Amino acid sequence: MAVTRKKEQQKETMKYDIKVIRATECKSGDIALDLDVNGVTIYGCFYVTRQTKNGEASFVTFPQRKGSDGKYYRHVYFPISDEQLSEIEKEIETLI
Question: Measured between alpha carbons, how far is 58 from 64 in angstroms, rounded to an integer?
Fold first, then answer.
């Protein structure tokens, strides 16, 4: 339990300054993104919208590579809050 609480506290204290550097619409309807997160550029992200049982869901995927076992692994990951996702959506609208 202590480990879980510690992780929850870390998530609450972490603040990310996220900016969309580049946004390009793909044929699939997804949007390719390059993000600046606290001064570090992350290339090859995607903003994806999918229809689910509960309605429409939007999320950001991070760059990944296929391992020798055939599974895909992310290079980088950080949690994105709903507020940050809405900020990213606004920035995408201004770029596209």
Answer: 18
Is 9 among the domain residues?
A: no
> How many separate domains does the chain show?
1
The CA distance from 67 to 83, in Å, is: 33
pLDDT digit string (tens) for 51-69? 888 888 888 999 999 999 9
Q: How many CB atoms lie within 10 A of CB 37?
A: 16
| Cα distance between residue 33 and residue 91, in whole Å | 11
Give this prediction's pTM: 0.74
Q: Say if 83 falls within a structural domain.
A: yes
Domain that includes residue 77, residue range: 17-95
